[in-house]
Amino acid sequence: MTAIDLNADLGEGFGRWRLTDDERLLSVVTSANVACGFHAGDAATMRRVCELAAERGVRIGAQVSYRDLAGFGRRAMDVPPEELTAEIAYQIGALEVFARAAGTRVSYVKPHGALYNRVVHDEEQAGAVVDGVLLADASLPVLGLPGSRLLKLAGKAGLPTVTEAFADRAYTEEGTLVPRGREGAVVTDPDAVVARSVSMARFGEVDAHGGARIRVRARSLCLHGDTPGAVDLARRIRERLLGAGVRVEAFA
Q1: Mean pLDDT lowest for which of 6-20, 94-108, 135-149, 159-173?
Q2: d(CA 153, CA 157)
Q3: What is the residue-wise DSSP string for 194-230?
Q4: What is the band of 236 on the pLDDT scale with cuts at 50, 70, 90?
Q5: What are phi and psi for residue 183, nearest 5 degrees?
Q6: DSSP letters along 156-208, please?
Q7: CATH number for the domain harbouring residue 22
Q8: 14-65: per-residue pLDDT in tens?
Q9: What are the residues whose beta carbons fall under 8 Å from the beta carbon of 202, sequence distance 6 or more?
Q10: 127 partner at 20 to 30 Å CA-CA among 34, 77, 158, 243?
C-alpha cells in the first residue's frame, strides 16, 4: 500500500501579521515546515506553532532560508558558503529550542523559496546547506527535490534524504519547478491540484508544463499554506488520497 507524507509551510507570519492558518492546517498535515525567522516567522510564532504541532503529533521541520524578510525568501541572493552554513545551523538551532520546550524536536530540514530552487543545481550552495545541517545535527533528514544536488550531497554526507513533490506547482519537462515569475507556475484550479496529488502519490507521475507526462517519485507532498483556501484544499487532498488507497503518514 502506497504511503505519502503531507507537509505544509507554516508559521509564515511576523509580529501581528499572519499568512498561514497554522492551527487548522495542523489538523490535516503530517509534517510542518516551520519558518525560522529568516524569510518569515518570529520567536513567538515559532514557539506557538511548535506547541500546536506537538499537541497534534505533527512532525516539525526547520524551513531554512536566505536572510530575506522583505522578499519572503524568494529573491535570488549570493551568500558566501561559510556564512550560509552558519545561518542554516542558526535557524535549525533556534527552532530546536522551541520544539524541545514543547516536548518534541526538529525532525527534518527543508530549504525555502530561492534557496530551495538554487540548491537543485548549485553545488556550492547545496554543500553549504548540507554543512549547516551537519553542524546542527548530523542525524536530521533533508527534504528536497528528486535528483537535486542538495539530496545527492546530503546522501554522500550520510544524512537521510526525503524526496518531495508539489501539489500546486507546475513542473518543467526536466522535473524541476517552473519559476514563479513565469505564467502557469502555480496551479490554481483546486480540482487539478487534487488530481495531481493523487497521480503523484499513486503512480509517481504528473503532467509537466506543456503537457508531457513525467516521473515524480516522492515520499512527501507539499501543500503551500499561503494558497487561498489552503485548509479546505488540504482536506480534499487528504480525503482523496485515502479514498485512492494511499496511507497518509509522516515519513520514517
Answers
A1: 6-20
A2: 6
A3: HHHHHHHHHHSEEE-TTS-EEE---SEEEE-TTSTTH
A4: very high
A5: -60, 135
A6: HTT--EEEEEESSB-B-TTSSBPPTTSTTSB---HHHHHHHHHHHHHHSEEE-
A7: 3.20.20.370
A8: 877 777 889 999 999 999 999 999 999 999 999 999 999 999 999 999 999 9
A9: 2, 244, 245, 246
A10: 34
Contact between 8 and 230 (Cβ < 8 Å)? yes
Q: Nearest-CA neighbor of 49 among 68, 66, 63?
A: 63
Cell numbers found for residue 171? 513542473
**Which of 113, 93, 114, 96 lies closest to 105 in space, CA to CA?**
96
Q: Which three cell numbers stand for residue 177?
A: 519547478
The bridge status of strand 59-64 relative to strand 106-111 is parallel
Domains contained in the chain, number: 1
SS (H, E, C) 14-66: ECCECCCCHHHHCCCCCEEEEECCCCCCCHHHHHHHHHHHHHHCCEEEEEECC
If you search the block for the grid coordinates 538554487, which residue do you land on? 118
Helix (H, G, I), strand (E, B) or coil at 122: coil
Query: Quick check: 23 and 52 in contact, CB under 8 A?
Result: yes
Pull the grid cell for residue 58: 505533527
Domain that holds residue 97: 3-248
Shortest CA distance to 230 belongs to which of 182, 167, 143?
167
What is the C-alpha separation between 175 and 19, in angstroms, rounded? Answer: 28
Q: pLDDT digit string (tens) for 149-190?
A: 999 999 999 999 999 999 999 999 999 999 888 888 999 899
The mean pLDDT value for 117-130 works out to 98
pTM of the model: 0.95
